[in-house]
Please model this.
Amino acid sequence: MIKDASGLTPSYYNTSKEILEILQNCERDIIDRLNIEPWHGWAEDKIFRDDMSIIGKNKHTIMELV
Model:
């Protein structure tokens, strides 16, 4: 049987809840490995402020798909 990179078979991906859980676990693993500190200064950053507002607007659309 074909498995993905995490060793899961396609039948595991039955619901969007399971897919979201996998993505969240991957995100936590990456943050833990790289020891990334969250930065909350996007609103004050003149260069990135507009980019982050676009991402924020699209976030709701992305979450509706999941």
